[in-house]
């Protein structure tokens, strides 16, 4: 821990967590096209959500997750992923879902955002031992 001059002229402590956070923020400026596979545990987001709103909430959660992880406001959900989320009906949302997030450049010149995120479903047999993986773009 180091002491540093604070707002009021008093010394304050800087923790390793704060330093890591600052380093992380500085590296966020580069928004290159990239593709990664993630697993979302939807069941924890469905707690205390009424039955008739569950599938719609699951789609919203996936959108929010993609926007947060890929740092884009424009998120497009693939129809196959939407079908998978709604496959058991409005009430029984799948507990987990494996998704592929692709940050891409916007082809439209008049688009507000330079980049958008495409969210696709990755079918898997089991979720055991899966981790976030960067996928090579062909």
Summarize the structure.
By secondary structure, the protein is of the alpha+beta class. The chain has three helices and seven strands, in the order E-E-H-E-H-E-H-E-E-E. The model has no long low-confidence stretch (mean pLDDT 86).
Please tally the helical runs, counting DSSP H or I stretches of 4 or more residues: 3
SS content category: alpha+beta
Shape by Cα distribution: globular
Number-wise, the strands total 7
User: Strand sequence of the main sheet, in spatial order?
Assistant: 4-6-5-3-7
> Low-confidence parts, pLDDT < 50 over ≥5 residues?
none
The portion of residues forming beta strands comes to 25-35%
Largest sheet: 5 strands, mixed
The end-to-end distance, rounded to whole angstroms, is 45 Å
The ordered string of helix (H) and strand (E) elements is EEHEHEHEEE
Give an overview in words:
The structure is a single chain. With 138 residues, the chain is of the alpha+beta class. It is built from 3 helices and 7 strands. Helices cover 25% and strands 28% of the residues. It is globular, with a radius of gyration of 19 Å.
How is the secondary structure organized here?
Blueprint: E1 2-5, E2 11-14, H1 16-26, E3 34-41, H2 54-70, E4 75-77, H3 79-85, E5 96-105, E6 115-121, E7 133-135
Parallel strand pairs: 4-6
Antiparallel strand pairs: 1-2, 3-5, 3-7, 5-6
Essential attributes:
single chain, 138 residues, alpha+beta, five-stranded mixed β-sheet, two-stranded antiparallel sheet, 7 strands
